[in-house]
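Sequence, structure tokens quoted for completeness.
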Amino acid sequence: MILREISNASIILSLFRYFFRWLSPLGQRMNTIYHNSQVFRLAKGFWARIKICFKYSFLGRITETKQISSRILDNSKLVQHLFNSYKKWKEKIIQLLRFSSTAHLAEDTKKDFFSFPVRTISTILITAVTINVIFSLVLQKEISLWGWLIRGLFLLVAVSGLICKADWQTIKKNSIFFKKL
């Protein structure tokens, strides 16, 4: 009841509701106008003609999916130059990523997520429940007592999961569910 009164009296939530109420019909109307426009019809016809012309051109034949003889491409200086420059750029990028602090940070984060799966699931669960509650308030969805109770239980489990320091091996070894599998 108190949350309902707060959501009805809040100016920001009212603006959000007003914005979302008019956003969907406006998008549908703009889509209808665009598809009925002369520009869309011209672009659609132009694209169909381009596909027909491209299909029978040199570029259309070289990009076909059937097997092309590789002798022509192997002897081409341009193809060799492009291939060599691709290999050089690839090596440079690999070197930069190998010594990058961002890559090391990403690896450490990945190890943390693998090391502490309960914490990861708890973070996702807290985010999901919080977003669900916010959208329920913004869109004025009525939530029963049981709904609030279940959301509260999910939050309680998620917060207690943030404290858990069990790694994946411990969970796998001690879980009854994983032992049955």
Q: What stands out?
A: The first helix runs from residue 2 to 9. Residues 1-64 form one domain. The CA atoms of residues 68 and 89 lie 26 Å apart.
